[in-house]
Amino acid sequence: MSEVNKGPLAGQRALVTGANSGIGAAVARGLAMAGAKVVINYVVNEPDAIKLVNEIEKSGGQAMALYADVSNESDVQSMFSGMIEAWGSIDILVNNAGIQRDAPFVDMTLSQWNKVMEVNLTGQFLCTREAAREFARRGVVPELSCAAGKVVCMSSVHEVIPWAGHVNYAASKGGVMMFMQSVAQELAHLKIRVNGIAPGAIRTPINRNAWETPEAEASLLKLIPYERIGEPADIAKATVWLASDQSDYVTGATLFIDGGMTLYPGFREGG
Ligand code: NAD
Question: Domains of the chain, with CATH numbers?
Answer without folding.
Answer: 4-258+266-270 (3.40.50.720)
